[in-house]
Amino acid sequence: MPWSAAPTVDVLTLWSTPRARVTDPETSHQAATRAAMRAPTIKARVVAILNEYPEGLTDFEGADRSGLGDNFRKRRADLTNEGLVCWTGRTRLSPTGSDARVWRLV
Fold this sequence. Notes:
Strand order of the largest sheet: 1-2
Strand content: 15-25%
Number of domains: 1
Distance between the termini: 32 Å
Radius of gyration: 16 Å
Largest sheet: 2 strands, antiparallel
Shape: elongated
Low-confidence stretches: 1-16
CATH topology: Arc Repressor Mutant, subunit A
Number of helices: 4
């Protein structure tokens, strides 16, 4: 078999996969579909915010600076799973006084 380039990935599909369990009610599937349609835009905002802070941000800082609230953490976690964001190995104090991981773009 001849060598080929890395497989291509449909980023829209990767970034917009709905997340609802088979056992969830229809309303959960509808919500997952709506969320999947917004996910690429929100992920792009998370990437843009992290790009502005190369030293990294905690989820609390990112949520505050982006105005995305908990959506920042959810989409940052997606981007981490996709290999685009990583933990810096550092923590900073969260507003509650506990340690919060600092995340940055890869």
